[in-house]
Specification:
Strand content: under 5%
Structural class: mainly alpha
Strand order of the largest sheet: 1-2
Shape: elongated
Number of strands: 2
Number of helices: 11
Radius of gyration: 18 Å
Number of domains: 2
């Protein structure tokens, strides 16, 4: 989400609850929600305007985003994983079949899905998967999905990459964990090419 999109949604909140949006308040909310998709953020703001009596806290806004595609539940993670592994993908290679690019995952599913996508090895892992390693990939995807909420550094790193247009570049070591899936596919691993 761009800063202007964020400011527009926050202006709706401020006007609805007669709340002055100070610079420190805006900084807190921007830091927390800059990685969200603009439509999801606006939908969450609209829902809160209709349902709460007072200006929402970060936690209330985060909860509203959970029901609108933000930091979501494991059921949502399962749906995203199924779409990435079984649904139609935006790219096709006649030798390897359907596949998802880095920007495609971010644009379609958001930062949390992108973080999980990176944690399991990204495009190559999902494109070149086999039935034998699909369960490992799914397990690691779900673990990374949960970890996203506990690692603000991952959220910030992905947001920075979106702003710079460098999604295809790997994250710094330590931001995307080396999962069993990645370890198995690394050079020298049991399933390395």
């Amino acid at each position: 989400m761009t800063l202007n999109e964020f400011k527009g949604a926050m202006a709706m909140l401020g006007a609805s609850f007669n709340r002055e949006l100070t610079r420190p308040l805006m900084t807190i909310y921007w830091t927390e929600f800059q990685a969200e998709r603009p439509d999801d953020f606006r939908d969450a703001v609209t829902e809160l305007i209709r349902t709460v009596k007072f200006f929402p806290t970060v936690a209330e806004l985060r909860t509203a985003l959970g029901s609108n595609g933000g930091a979501g539940s494991l059921a949502e993670a399962g749906s995203v994983f199924e779409a990435l592994t079984n649904g139609p993908a935006p790219h096709y290679d006649p030798r390897r079949g359907d596949w998802w690019g880095h920007p495609d995952v971010m644009e379609r599913f958001g930062a949390q899905a992108y973080s999980s996508f990176l944690a399991v090895g990204g495009t190559a892992t999902l494109r070149d998967r086999t039935e034998r390693n699909l369960d490992y990939i799914r397990r690691d995807f779900m673990a990374a999905w949960e970890e996203y909420n506990r690692q603000p550094g991952v959220r910030r790193a992905i947001t920075d990459r979106v702003a710079r247009g460098s999604l295809g570049v790997p994250l710094q070591p330590g931001l995307a964990p080396i999962t069993d899936t990645v370890r198995r596919l690394m050079p020298g691993g049991p399933e390395s090419p």
